[in-house]
Design brief:
Elements lengths: L1 H29 L1 H14 L8 H29 L4 H25 L2 H16 L5 H31 L4 H27 L1 H9 L4 H40 L1 H13 L7 H32 L1
Amino acid sequence: MAGSSLLVLIDDIAAVLDDVALMTKMAAKKTAGVLGDDLALNAQQVSGVRAEREIPVVWAVAKGSFRNKLILVPSALAISAFIPWLVTPLLMLGGAYLCFEGFEKLAHSFLHSKAEDQADHTQSVEAVADPATDLVAYEKDKITGAVRTDFILSAEIIAITLGIVAGATLMQQVIVLSGIAIVMTVGVYGLVAGIVKLDDLGLWLTRKPGQVAISIGNAILRAAPYMMKSLSVIGTAAMFLVGGGILTHGVPVVHHWIEGVSQSAAGFSWIVPSLLNAVAGIVAGAVVLAGVMVVSKIWKALKG
Protein backbone atom coordinates (compact mmCIF):
# COMPACT_ATOMS: atom_id res chain seq x y z
CA MET A 1 0.00 0.00 0.00
CA ALA A 2 2.81 2.37 0.98
CA GLY A 3 4.73 1.45 -2.17
CA SER A 4 1.68 2.15 -4.31
CA SER A 5 1.17 5.56 -2.66
CA LEU A 6 4.83 6.41 -3.22
CA LEU A 7 4.56 5.53 -6.91
CA VAL A 8 1.44 7.71 -7.24
CA LEU A 9 3.27 10.58 -5.52
CA ILE A 10 6.28 10.20 -7.81
CA ASP A 11 3.97 10.10 -10.83
CA ASP A 12 2.22 13.29 -9.66
CA ILE A 13 5.56 15.02 -9.12
CA ALA A 14 6.74 13.98 -12.59
CA ALA A 15 3.51 15.29 -14.12
CA VAL A 16 3.92 18.63 -12.33
CA LEU A 17 7.54 18.89 -13.45
CA ASP A 18 6.52 18.12 -17.04
CA ASP A 19 3.90 20.88 -16.89
CA VAL A 20 6.42 23.28 -15.36
CA ALA A 21 9.01 22.46 -18.02
CA LEU A 22 6.47 22.95 -20.81
CA MET A 23 5.23 26.29 -19.43
CA THR A 24 8.80 27.48 -18.82
CA LYS A 25 9.72 26.62 -22.41
CA MET A 26 6.66 28.49 -23.72
CA ALA A 27 7.46 31.49 -21.52
CA ALA A 28 11.08 31.58 -22.68
CA LYS A 29 9.94 31.47 -26.30
CA LYS A 30 7.34 34.22 -25.81
CA THR A 31 9.79 36.50 -24.00
CA ALA A 32 12.52 36.13 -26.65
CA GLY A 33 11.70 39.56 -28.08
CA VAL A 34 12.13 41.27 -24.74
CA LEU A 35 15.33 39.28 -24.09
CA GLY A 36 16.94 40.44 -27.35
CA ASP A 37 16.06 44.04 -26.63
CA ASP A 38 17.16 43.68 -23.01
CA LEU A 39 20.58 42.47 -24.16
CA ALA A 40 21.07 45.30 -26.63
CA LEU A 41 19.79 48.00 -24.29
CA ASN A 42 21.85 46.93 -21.28
CA ALA A 43 25.01 46.51 -23.35
CA GLN A 44 24.47 50.06 -24.63
CA GLN A 45 23.67 51.38 -21.16
CA VAL A 46 27.12 50.46 -19.82
CA SER A 47 28.93 51.77 -22.89
CA GLY A 48 31.12 54.76 -22.12
CA VAL A 49 32.20 53.34 -18.76
CA ARG A 50 35.94 52.86 -18.32
CA ALA A 51 37.10 49.36 -19.19
CA GLU A 52 38.13 48.42 -15.65
CA ARG A 53 34.71 49.48 -14.33
CA GLU A 54 32.52 47.69 -16.89
CA ILE A 55 32.08 44.43 -14.96
CA PRO A 56 31.38 46.17 -11.59
CA VAL A 57 28.75 48.33 -13.31
CA VAL A 58 27.14 45.29 -14.99
CA TRP A 59 27.11 43.51 -11.61
CA ALA A 60 25.47 46.54 -9.95
CA VAL A 61 22.77 46.60 -12.64
CA ALA A 62 22.27 42.82 -12.30
CA LYS A 63 21.68 43.23 -8.54
CA GLY A 64 19.16 45.96 -9.33
CA SER A 65 17.48 43.59 -11.77
CA PHE A 66 17.15 40.91 -9.08
CA ARG A 67 15.56 43.51 -6.79
CA ASN A 68 13.13 44.37 -9.57
CA LYS A 69 12.17 40.71 -9.91
CA LEU A 70 11.64 40.43 -6.14
CA ILE A 71 8.99 43.14 -6.51
CA LEU A 72 7.45 41.95 -9.78
CA VAL A 73 7.10 38.20 -9.14
CA PRO A 74 5.06 38.51 -5.88
CA SER A 75 2.99 41.26 -7.53
CA ALA A 76 2.24 38.97 -10.48
CA LEU A 77 1.25 36.12 -8.15
CA ALA A 78 -1.05 38.46 -6.20
CA ILE A 79 -2.72 39.61 -9.42
CA SER A 80 -3.22 36.01 -10.54
CA ALA A 81 -4.72 35.06 -7.15
CA PHE A 82 -6.99 38.03 -6.46
CA ILE A 83 -7.66 39.87 -9.74
CA PRO A 84 -7.03 37.32 -12.53
CA TRP A 85 -9.17 39.32 -14.99
CA LEU A 86 -6.36 41.89 -15.00
CA VAL A 87 -3.90 39.46 -16.65
CA THR A 88 -5.23 39.95 -20.20
CA PRO A 89 -5.31 43.79 -20.03
CA LEU A 90 -1.77 43.76 -18.64
CA LEU A 91 -0.64 41.49 -21.45
CA MET A 92 -2.30 43.76 -24.02
CA LEU A 93 -0.65 46.77 -22.42
CA GLY A 94 2.68 44.95 -22.46
CA GLY A 95 2.25 43.96 -26.11
CA ALA A 96 1.43 47.56 -27.04
CA TYR A 97 4.52 48.75 -25.19
CA LEU A 98 6.73 46.24 -27.02
CA CYS A 99 5.35 47.43 -30.36
CA PHE A 100 5.86 51.06 -29.32
CA GLU A 101 9.47 50.39 -28.37
CA GLY A 102 10.11 48.59 -31.63
CA PHE A 103 8.53 51.30 -33.78
CA GLU A 104 10.36 54.02 -31.87
CA LYS A 105 13.62 52.32 -32.84
CA LEU A 106 12.55 52.30 -36.49
CA ALA A 107 11.50 55.94 -36.32
CA HIS A 108 14.65 57.01 -34.52
CA SER A 109 16.58 57.59 -37.75
CA PHE A 110 13.82 59.93 -38.93
CA LEU A 111 13.27 61.70 -35.61
CA HIS A 112 16.97 62.15 -34.82
CA SER A 113 19.79 63.00 -37.21
CA LYS A 114 23.13 61.19 -37.28
CA ALA A 115 24.73 64.42 -36.14
CA GLU A 116 22.61 64.38 -32.96
CA ASP A 117 23.53 60.76 -32.24
CA GLN A 118 27.21 61.49 -32.85
CA ALA A 119 27.04 64.57 -30.62
CA ASP A 120 25.54 62.50 -27.77
CA HIS A 121 28.26 59.85 -28.19
CA THR A 122 31.03 62.46 -28.27
CA GLN A 123 29.64 64.17 -25.17
CA SER A 124 29.61 60.85 -23.30
CA VAL A 125 33.21 60.03 -24.30
CA GLU A 126 34.42 63.52 -23.33
CA ALA A 127 32.64 63.31 -19.99
CA VAL A 128 34.46 60.09 -19.11
CA ALA A 129 37.83 61.44 -20.29
CA ASP A 130 37.45 64.74 -18.38
CA PRO A 131 39.44 64.58 -15.08
CA ALA A 132 36.89 66.95 -13.52
CA THR A 133 34.05 64.49 -14.07
CA ASP A 134 32.77 62.77 -10.93
CA LEU A 135 33.04 59.17 -12.18
CA VAL A 136 31.20 57.80 -9.14
CA ALA A 137 28.18 60.01 -9.88
CA TYR A 138 28.49 59.25 -13.61
CA GLU A 139 28.43 55.50 -12.96
CA LYS A 140 25.56 55.90 -10.50
CA ASP A 141 23.50 57.70 -13.15
CA LYS A 142 24.30 54.92 -15.64
CA ILE A 143 23.29 52.22 -13.15
CA THR A 144 20.10 54.02 -12.13
CA GLY A 145 19.04 54.44 -15.77
CA ALA A 146 19.82 50.82 -16.59
CA VAL A 147 17.91 49.49 -13.56
CA ARG A 148 14.92 51.67 -14.46
CA THR A 149 14.95 50.31 -18.02
CA ASP A 150 15.34 46.78 -16.65
CA PHE A 151 12.23 47.24 -14.48
CA ILE A 152 10.11 47.99 -17.53
CA LEU A 153 11.52 45.09 -19.56
CA SER A 154 11.33 42.73 -16.57
CA ALA A 155 7.69 43.68 -16.07
CA GLU A 156 7.06 42.66 -19.68
CA ILE A 157 8.78 39.30 -19.15
CA ILE A 158 6.81 38.61 -15.97
CA ALA A 159 3.50 39.75 -17.53
CA ILE A 160 4.00 37.50 -20.56
CA THR A 161 4.94 34.57 -18.32
CA LEU A 162 1.93 35.22 -16.09
CA GLY A 163 -0.35 34.98 -19.11
CA ILE A 164 1.04 31.50 -19.82
CA VAL A 165 0.75 30.18 -16.24
CA ALA A 166 -2.52 31.95 -15.35
CA GLY A 167 -4.49 28.69 -15.29
CA ALA A 168 -1.85 26.68 -13.43
CA THR A 169 -1.69 25.88 -9.72
CA LEU A 170 -0.08 28.36 -7.33
CA MET A 171 2.98 26.14 -6.87
CA GLN A 172 3.50 25.84 -10.64
CA GLN A 173 3.12 29.61 -11.02
CA VAL A 174 5.72 30.23 -8.31
CA ILE A 175 8.20 27.77 -9.86
CA VAL A 176 7.78 29.02 -13.45
CA LEU A 177 7.80 32.74 -12.61
CA SER A 178 10.76 32.39 -10.25
CA GLY A 179 12.63 30.19 -12.72
CA ILE A 180 12.10 32.58 -15.63
CA ALA A 181 13.10 35.55 -13.45
CA ILE A 182 16.35 33.90 -12.35
CA VAL A 183 17.29 32.40 -15.73
CA MET A 184 16.56 35.60 -17.65
CA THR A 185 18.51 37.77 -15.21
CA VAL A 186 21.55 35.49 -15.08
CA GLY A 187 21.40 34.90 -18.83
CA VAL A 188 21.00 38.55 -19.81
CA TYR A 189 23.67 40.00 -17.55
CA GLY A 190 26.06 37.12 -18.10
CA LEU A 191 25.83 37.78 -21.84
CA VAL A 192 26.03 41.55 -21.32
CA ALA A 193 29.24 41.08 -19.34
CA GLY A 194 30.64 38.94 -22.15
CA ILE A 195 29.57 41.41 -24.85
CA VAL A 196 31.06 44.50 -23.18
CA LYS A 197 34.37 42.67 -22.69
CA LEU A 198 34.57 41.36 -26.26
CA ASP A 199 36.75 44.26 -27.39
CA ASP A 200 39.09 43.70 -24.43
CA LEU A 201 39.35 40.01 -25.34
CA GLY A 202 40.12 40.92 -28.94
CA LEU A 203 42.76 43.46 -27.89
CA TRP A 204 44.33 40.94 -25.51
CA LEU A 205 44.57 38.34 -28.26
CA THR A 206 46.20 40.81 -30.68
CA ARG A 207 49.01 41.25 -28.18
CA LYS A 208 49.66 37.53 -27.80
CA PRO A 209 52.48 35.89 -29.75
CA GLY A 210 51.42 33.87 -32.76
CA GLN A 211 49.60 34.82 -35.92
CA VAL A 212 46.55 32.70 -35.08
CA ALA A 213 45.85 34.59 -31.84
CA ILE A 214 46.39 37.93 -33.56
CA SER A 215 44.05 36.98 -36.40
CA ILE A 216 41.33 35.85 -33.99
CA GLY A 217 41.76 39.04 -31.95
CA ASN A 218 41.43 41.25 -35.01
CA ALA A 219 38.36 39.29 -36.13
CA ILE A 220 36.71 39.80 -32.72
CA LEU A 221 37.47 43.54 -32.80
CA ARG A 222 35.92 43.81 -36.25
CA ALA A 223 32.89 41.67 -35.36
CA ALA A 224 32.02 43.28 -31.98
CA PRO A 225 30.28 46.42 -33.39
CA TYR A 226 28.32 44.31 -35.90
CA MET A 227 27.23 41.97 -33.09
CA MET A 228 25.76 44.92 -31.20
CA LYS A 229 23.91 46.10 -34.31
CA SER A 230 22.66 42.57 -35.02
CA LEU A 231 21.35 42.22 -31.47
CA SER A 232 19.46 45.47 -31.84
CA VAL A 233 17.94 44.45 -35.20
CA ILE A 234 16.96 40.95 -34.02
CA GLY A 235 15.55 42.35 -30.79
CA THR A 236 13.45 44.93 -32.65
CA ALA A 237 12.04 42.34 -35.08
CA ALA A 238 11.23 39.99 -32.21
CA MET A 239 9.45 42.80 -30.35
CA PHE A 240 7.05 43.26 -33.27
CA LEU A 241 6.49 39.51 -33.55
CA VAL A 242 5.89 38.98 -29.84
CA GLY A 243 4.05 42.25 -29.21
CA GLY A 244 1.89 41.88 -32.31
CA GLY A 245 1.16 38.27 -31.40
CA ILE A 246 0.00 39.27 -27.92
CA LEU A 247 -2.28 41.99 -29.30
CA THR A 248 -3.84 39.84 -32.04
CA HIS A 249 -4.36 36.95 -29.62
CA GLY A 250 -6.16 39.31 -27.25
CA VAL A 251 -8.67 40.30 -29.95
CA PRO A 252 -10.61 37.10 -30.82
CA VAL A 253 -11.89 38.39 -34.18
CA VAL A 254 -8.38 39.24 -35.39
CA HIS A 255 -6.93 36.03 -33.95
CA HIS A 256 -9.47 33.83 -35.74
CA TRP A 257 -9.01 35.77 -38.98
CA ILE A 258 -5.24 35.16 -38.86
CA GLU A 259 -5.85 31.45 -38.22
CA GLY A 260 -8.19 31.31 -41.22
CA VAL A 261 -5.72 33.08 -43.51
CA SER A 262 -2.91 30.80 -42.33
CA GLN A 263 -4.90 27.65 -43.04
CA SER A 264 -5.79 28.83 -46.55
CA ALA A 265 -2.16 29.71 -47.36
CA ALA A 266 -1.05 26.29 -48.51
CA GLY A 267 2.67 25.76 -48.10
CA PHE A 268 3.16 29.03 -46.20
CA SER A 269 0.99 28.39 -43.14
CA TRP A 270 4.11 28.26 -40.95
CA ILE A 271 5.19 31.83 -41.73
CA VAL A 272 1.92 33.67 -42.44
CA PRO A 273 0.92 34.08 -38.74
CA SER A 274 4.32 35.53 -37.91
CA LEU A 275 4.18 37.98 -40.81
CA LEU A 276 0.66 39.10 -39.92
CA ASN A 277 1.58 39.45 -36.25
CA ALA A 278 4.59 41.53 -37.25
CA VAL A 279 2.44 43.78 -39.45
CA ALA A 280 -0.05 44.19 -36.60
CA GLY A 281 2.84 45.00 -34.28
CA ILE A 282 4.22 47.66 -36.62
CA VAL A 283 0.79 49.29 -37.05
CA ALA A 284 0.13 49.21 -33.29
CA GLY A 285 3.59 50.65 -32.59
CA ALA A 286 2.99 53.51 -35.03
CA VAL A 287 -0.38 54.32 -33.45
CA VAL A 288 1.00 54.28 -29.90
CA LEU A 289 4.04 56.38 -30.85
CA ALA A 290 1.81 58.94 -32.55
CA GLY A 291 -0.38 59.07 -29.45
CA VAL A 292 2.63 59.48 -27.16
CA MET A 293 4.00 62.32 -29.29
CA VAL A 294 0.64 64.14 -29.31
CA VAL A 295 0.22 63.79 -25.54
CA SER A 296 3.83 64.92 -25.01
CA LYS A 297 3.29 68.06 -27.10
CA ILE A 298 0.04 68.86 -25.27
CA TRP A 299 1.74 68.33 -21.90
CA LYS A 300 4.63 70.62 -22.85
CA ALA A 301 2.19 73.26 -24.10
CA LEU A 302 0.25 73.13 -20.82
CA LYS A 303 3.43 73.38 -18.77
CA GLY A 304 4.67 76.27 -20.95
